[in-house]
Amino acid sequence: METTFTLTDAQTAFFHREGYLAVESLVPPDELEWMTAIYDRLFAERAGRESGDQFDLAGTDDDTVQASLPQILNPAKYAPELKEGRFRVNALRLARHLLGEDANYQGEHAIFKPARYGAATPWHQDEAYWNPNLDYNAISIWIPLQPATLENGCMQFIPRSHTMEVMPHHTIGNDPRVHGLEIDTLNSSSAAACPLSAGGCTVHPSRTLHHTGANRSEMPRRAYILGFGTPPKPRNPHLPPRIFAWNDAKQTPREQRRRDFETQNPVFNS
Ligand code: NI
Hints:
CATH architecture: Sandwich
Largest sheet: 7 strands, antiparallel
Number of strands: 13
Strand order of the largest sheet: 1-11-6-13-4-3-2
Bound molecules: nickel (II) ion
Structural class: alpha+beta
């Protein structure tokens, strides 16, 4: 599929200098309603719950409690038609423009904030979730499927934080059952909020500090996130090793469901 999607030199320079960027019209207008219908169906059907791909990012993920920040990893596994969207071709072009032609797709997820109920996503760096032994050159493209506002939880960034190392994090509430991470300490007075139209996007590299507020609006807030990067490289062995103790401490119900599912559904074709 061809795309004419592009960035101006000013947008590219802003991204590299500030460590984030807001872009309009990544999703072709005729795809928005289609994506939204699939998105709502996947959450309504609790797609991926059994295999550990759907879980509450901000809570203990107890089946008896309504999730305040439900997330689905790899939604396209449960709705393969999403792989055909032109939004994806535009996103890859955007990623290669910013990272180089060897950048490729590295994953996707959906984070849903139910109306009046969706919790805040605390300040964090995405790389804090990843393998500390690798060096990354990666971005996340965050796409709201309705207008994103301060009231419903638009993206906020700490400008120029992308040049920092990964800072110490902890699981939300210091509860090892919770998947979501939060930075230990932060002065967020310089935060830049990025309200967007439906189908626009924000882009940030893996170390930029970011957060979204709770959804205080009467409408659901749907965000679709695509990850791209060049192949991760082993870290320089002469540098002190990085230790992300906050990940080693986790014992999430999601991981348990994933292990149980893999035990019950072994793959025989390996
Ligand atoms: Ni994030």
